[in-house]
Amino acid sequence: MPPEFRKGRNINGEPVEMLVEKMVWRPSVYALxxxxxxxxxxxxxxxxxxxxxxxxxxxxxxxxxxALIREVWEETGLEAKIxxxxxxxxxxxxxxxxxxxxxxxxxxxxxxxxxxxxNSILEDEWTTNPHWVAIDQCTAASFTAGEMVWKAVQAxxxx
Length: 159
Fold this sequence. Notes:
The chain has 159 residues and is of the alpha+beta class.
């Protein structure tokens, strides 16, 4: 029998109690795209005021890598070639709108193959302003999902 509550985190990384009966399963995929100059492609999160990686939910009809190519293009205007899977981690997350997610995050190293960088084409997107940031200027605290994203960044940089 499942528990009634599960510990999770909100957008600010604060611990919250989440109702298991409200949880929705959400596989998601994120791109770690670096320049040769040690910069990482990121977006600004409007709720947390921290960085997010390009990516998002996998549709039931998509392969994970197809979803990542779609998400990178939708959110940044860039075409991406997926390289290798570098990190997988689950997370229990309460959104600002009150959704209870149990997410499984797949982090892939990727490279830009074309396109022109632009803002997301999706309405009501929480992330904006795709741009490059020097990775040596970042820490886990720089990212909305903190330690989870930082582990993926480190795994991509140190295979």
